Amino acid sequence: MASCSLLLAACGNLKNSDLASNSTTTTSEAKKYETTSSTDGGYSVLLKKGVYKTSPISGLEATNYDNSVDESAMERGLIRVSKKVFSTKDYVIQEGQQLDEATVTNWLGRYSKSNKEGLNLKNNGKTGSTTRNPIILQQIMEEDFYVKSGSSYKLAGISISLGLNSVDYYTKTTDGAEYSTKISPAKRRAFGQKTANTIVSRLHAKTKLKNIPIMVGLFSKTDTDSLVGGTYFSYGTASANSSKISKWSSVNEKTQVLPTVDGASAVSASDKSKFTSFKDEIEDYFPNVSGVTATLRYYDGKLAYESIAITTQFYGYLQVQSFAQTVMSRAKKYLGTSSPVEITISSVNDTQAVVAKETATGSYRMHIYGGN
Amino acid sequence: MASCSLLLAACGNLKNSDLASNSTTTTSEAKKYETTSSTDGGYSVLLKKGVYKTSPISGLEATNYDNSVDESAMERGLIRVSKKVFSTKDYVIQEGQQLDEATVTNWLGRYSKSNKEGLNLKNNGKTGSTTRNPIILQQIMEEDFYVKSGSSYKLAGISISLGLNSVDYYTKTTDGAEYSTKISPAKRRAFGQKTANTIVSRLHAKTKLKNIPIMVGLFSKTDTDSLVGGTYFSYGTASANSSKISKWSSVNEKTQVLPTVDGASAVSASDKSKFTSFKDEIEDYFPNVSGVTATLRYYDGKLAYESIAITTQFYGYLQVQSFAQTVMSRAKKYLGTSSPVEITISSVNDTQAVVAKETATGSYRMHIYGGN
């Protein structure tokens, strides 16, 4: 367990750390603690000496092939799932600081004699796509949750995300052809839950962390041909001192791109129909519209976010002004009232304008880059 | 005057054209005329059969070297100057349709035996940077202004912009080294005014256009080393039937990038100081901010638009949320209240967020791409 000492060192001693007193004022020279205000329903972010603290493990991945995870979707989802466990009213958030780079590098490796910390399955010596042991755990992400304690803040919760491959891409020789091993949903789930318990027991073995609840979310990566990022499918929380997660809850997330390809059916026929009406009118109204696509995110069966990308082959100032106006009026007319909507109007190189409503019931607003 | 026939053909006969009756409704199948609503203080745009009409001369340039004009600045400025002549209350706008591609291609050429329409100076056979005749007229832009006439619209004004080089880049042999000829402000002005009169007399010689007032704006391109686009310096209007512009008015436009380089002094020390305070706090608050620059546009000595670009080396969801909040609070604290402000937060590949107030006295709003 060589990497444990690294982990301990990284955990440090919060009481003696330079995380000390202060509030949300922004001008005191002596301040060490500070939070940035949150967006609607979001967490306030805990800064350190006025500076945003980044996680030392961000970007670490198990392999360099085509397995790379959509980190933005993974992080956004982790924070969303965390809200079910750590209330945004009581907790402030900071990017994970408990796991360090050396530890996570070991954990993302295969189990072997020289890396007994490795969480991926050992190399069984086979290279056949169905006979080898695939790399399933591709990435680990951590977020920390603090509560106010007197004039300071103390760590009170940790969320861990396990980024799990649905397809593991690999080569048989260095720079050789790329092969792939599929990982079934059942296998991914079983592996994810077992690995989550291993991580929980390792973290709760540390004196400084044993009383900290740990939430683990299981994130399923899509294959590289997919147009959409991955989604969470399960999460569970280990209470203080517990070495395992006894209850797993489902997460119902779906992402869909419209128009659908290969005759795939829409998650919601109504959302699809609204988008099609919007798209048809936009394409009729202006020449040079080369693409209109939507990405829709569904949480618990409801449309939660709709993002529409319009690509044009024009650049003119008047064209963009006029087009953005039309897009806004058609969005009001056709698009749903159940989710925030983001519409970007881009030419080949630049975003020209954004038309958006930030909440389901909000008003559309428009920003045209470069002004009048 | 071979190209005149082309011009005449392009002008056509408005009464007999398929530009016919109708209003701003958007659902009638029979509609041929329609306008899109305007932004604050802007023109409504005249569509044709529901479709935005692009100008056939857009993008035409006299040379292919490094002379290319910032078309967006040229068009934005032309519309701004046009407002002094054609009120946004009385006129609707359409991209120029009176000049066609063949005509403007001839006009942008040098005067020669085979191109007597050429508006650039004839080739004097010399190649020395101070002895040759430079290409001064680089680009021509047109906007048309219509007024309502019964149930239809009729052409009632034309704005022409002449994009004039301050430096003409050229080669002595095909694919050879690039040389340049500087054109003084006085020479640019004299050439621009003379050329404007030539264009006015050519257009007013057409029966269909002789009663249409023509505004001509003179746009000065900056050299390629400049960080900012060009600006207008003069404009004048030829009344109906007039063959020349008898009075020229000055346009006072300045664009400046902050921080200034090479010890250049700021247009406004106060605006510079506000930006510096904003920049310093942003850079202190977050790691990985790799650049903060501002582009300020001054019209008639007043700050009219401030655009700030923040480049970061981070991508995380939480980082962008938190950073955008901080940027917005610092913008409110430091930046001026006399102009609209646009602040983009971008990583290497993408715009991550935009924080902006659309009017001088408006509220700041923020849009984070990708949503929650």
Description:
2 copies of one chain form a homodimer. By secondary structure, the first copy, chain A, is α+β, with helices and mostly antiparallel strands. Chain A has 2 domains: 2-251, sex pheromone staph- cam373 precursor fold; 255-368, GMP Synthetase, Chain A, domain 3 (2-Layer Sandwich), CATH 3.30.300. Helix content of chain A is 23%, strand content 30%. Chain A contains 6 helices and 16 strands. The first copy, chain A, has helices at 2-11, 71-82, 101-108, 185-204, 269-285, 317-334; strands at 33-36, 45-48, 92-95, 137-149, 152-164, 167-171, 178-182, 214-220, 231-238, 248-250, 253-258, 289-299, 302-312, 341-346, 351-357, 365-368. In chain A, helix 5 runs antiparallel to helix 6 (317-334). The radius of gyration of chain A is 23 Å and the shape is globular. Mean pLDDT of chain A is 87; it is low at 1-30. Chains A and B meet through helix 2, helix 6, strand 15 and strand 16 of A and helix 2, helix 6, strand 15 and strand 16 of B. Chains A, B: This is Sex pheromone biosynthesis protein.
What's a quick, concise take on this entry?
The structure is a homodimer of 372-residue chains. Chain A is an alpha+beta fold. Helix content of chain A is 23%, strand content 30%.
- What percent of residues of chain A are in strands? 25-35%
Rg of chain A, Cα atoms, Å: 23 Å
Gap between N and C termini of chain A: 62 Å
- Biggest contact: A-B, 58 and 58 residues
Oligomer: homodimer
Please describe the structure with a list of short key phrases separated by commas or semicolons:
homodimer; alpha+beta; sex pheromone staph- cam373 precursor fold; GMP Synthetase, Chain A, domain 3; six-stranded mixed sheet; 6 helices; disordered N terminus
